[in-house]
Amino acid sequence: MPTKSQFKNIFRNLEVGIGEASKVTGVSQRQLRYWEEKGYIVPLESDGGVRTYSLGTLMSIAFLKDRLDDGYTLATAVKMLEEHKNKIRILSKFGRVMNQSVEVEEDETGEGGVIKFGKVTSEDQQEYQLEGVINKDEHYFRLKKLKNNSKNA
DNA sequence: GTTCTTACA
DNA sequence: TGTAAGAA
Q1: Which is more confident, A54 or A97?
Q2: What's the N-to-C CA distance of chain A in angstroms?
Q3: Where is the HTH merR-type domain (predicted)?
Q4: Which of A35-49, A67-81, A82-96 has the largest mean confidence?
Q5: CATH number for region A4-100
Q6: How far is CA A93 from CA A13, A98, A149, in A?
Q7: How buried is A36 (Cβ within 10 angstroms: 0-12 exposed, 13-18 middle, 19+ buried)?
Q8: Distance A73 CA to B4 C1' (A)
């Protein structure tokens, strides 16, 4: 399994030029330069004024492209991107922690499964196992009673 | 061969 | 926003 630093190196060192960026995202070079002019994306700007994009910027470009294809204006798409980035920043941090303390069981299809988040306790001291279920057409949380700790008679 | 800027449609 | 020109 790749180490944390390997991930960082990949993320930091992987760079692509505007040609590749345009090819893989479906956004024209003209658009990429325009978005940069507007301050929506920031290239790594290496040598000779030749643009280079980080993996993160590539993701942003792909995100914007998706919103545009959905019919949103560029300005709206950018706003959505900022919110998305904030969300992902916290979510990924949470994800790294979760990956160490959470169990995942794949279902038969291999497309979904059950995520066992761990123990939760209600106000009356009843303990539950919190599970997240996801499959092709639905996703939800559920509580599984662990043992009956009820102090009621 | 690719990318850059500028300009025009 | 696509395309073309001329330079890097």
Answers
A1: A54
A2: 51
A3: 18-83
A4: A67-81
A5: 1.10.1660.10
A6: 21, 9, 34
A7: middle
A8: 27
Given a contact cutoff of 8 angstroms between Cβ atoms, the answer to whether A66 and A105 are in contact is: no
Q: Quick one: tokens of A73?
A: 């204006």
CA torsion sign for A41, A47, A52, A57 is negative
Separation in Å: B8 C1' and A146 CA = 72
Q: How crowded is residue A58: how many other Cβ atoms within 10 Å of its Cβ?
A: 18
pLDDT digits (tens, 9 = 90+) for A84-123: 999 999 998 888 888 778 888 998 888 899 999 888 999 9
| Strand B bases with any atom < 7 A from protein Cβ | 2-7
CB A149 within 8 A of CB A126: yes
Determine if strand B comes within 7 Å of the CB of A88. no
Burial of residue A77 (CB within 10 Å: 0-12, 13-18, 19+) is buried
**In chain A, where the domains are located:** 4-100, 102-147
Closest residue to C2 by CA to C1' distance? A30
Q: Which 15-54 positions of A have CB less than 7 A from strand C?
A: 28-31, 34, 48
